[in-house]
Amino acid sequence: MGKTAPTLQVTPLTLGMMSRIFLVQGDAGVIVVDAGMRGQTNRIIGALAQREIAPQDVRLLLITHGHLDHFGGAKALQARTGAPVAVHAQDADALRAGRNLPTFTPTSWPSALLMRVGASLMQGHADSALEPDIVFTTPWRLDDYGIAGEVIHTPGHTPGSVTLLLDNGVAIVGDLAMGNMLFPKRATAPLIAWNPERNWESLRLLLEHHPTLIYVTHGQPLTPAALHALLKQHT
Ligand SMILES: [Zn+2]
Ligand SMILES: [Zn+2]
After folding, report:
1. Could you give the CA distance from residue 154 to residue 176 in angstroms, rounded to a whole number?
2. Which helix (H) or strand (E) element contains residue 58?
3. Lowest mean pLDDT: which of 4-8, 73-77, 146-150, 203-207?
4. pTM of the full structure
5. 142 C-alpha vs ligand 1 centroid, how far in Å?
6. What angle do CA 155, 207, 220 make, to 5 degrees?
7. Ligand 2 centroid – CA 221 distance (Å)
8. Whole-angstrom Cα distance, residue 89 to residue 77?
9. What is the distance in A from the centroid of ligand 1 to the CA of 26?
10. Quick one: DSSP state of residue 222?
11. CATH number attached to the domain at 9-234
12. How many whole angstroms from its chain centre is CA 71?
């Protein structure tokens, strides 16, 4: 008898104007990718309830990287769900400190401006600091959490940025790329990067895995063609 393909459903939960987290439901569990900012946890729990997912059904909180808009709510979500928080070893210190690591530069002058405007939002807070339960290196398969997929290292935006690549070809990439604000089907560079060159290397590596659909945190889902076009612009 042939094996049936495992269930894998990705549901984006929009939290802010340009920010989302993802529920990934597999055959034997649900995991949450990223945790939003401090203060967004009730909204996440509510969105789970709407889908008849109890907080304790969440088996893992996977953080794509150590920026506050992705992990600021992790401590609160960890407390509400009891799920372990997992982050790549190279971004774990950002979670411990409860702030963005100071090792990034804007990728363009508009992002330099945005960084100044957004500086107060990006300030750390003691309530965001937490000790991650799982500090992993990659590749890391998530079969133990009921998810047919693996976490791969896609550094550049931050040193420990990761992508969740599901066996069905769907990828959740954090801030490896963003949606274009004016043309949502187009991809754009992340506003800031620790190492832009590494970011483009990581994007190339991801495309070599032939993802079918790419979910970004800031923007609409992207096609591989949109990412190939972005890579061409920058390399
Ligand atoms: Zn980021
Ligand atoms: Zn972000």
Report:
1. 7
2. strand 58-62
3. 4-8
4. 0.92
5. 23
6. 80
7. 15
8. 20
9. 26
10. B
11. 3.60.15.10
12. 9
